[in-house]
Amino acid sequence: MKKFSPPRFPEPNWRSELTSFSKLDTDITTDVLIVGGGITGITSAYLLAKQGVKATFIESDETLNGTTGHTTAKITVQHGLIYDQFITDYSEE
Fold this sequence. Notes:
Layout: E1 32-35, H1 39-50, E2 55-58, H2 66-69, H3 79-90
Parallel strand pairs: 1-2
């Protein structure tokens, strides 16, 4: 029986030079622990750190992988099409 292998897609441009991190092998102390190294987790850690909070994020796989790593992050010129249709069908109000 042949093993299923999902199709490989080209890597998005923003994933081309990601830094990899080694496994945490020592105890650390932190004010806030964030689970997940996607855009939300990384941004949260960054914003907390800017406020002087010792924030740490952990990730079980690769940072910026999964949904964050393989999305357009809603950067598109086509959103106007659906909004125009909503306005046409339901009015701007």
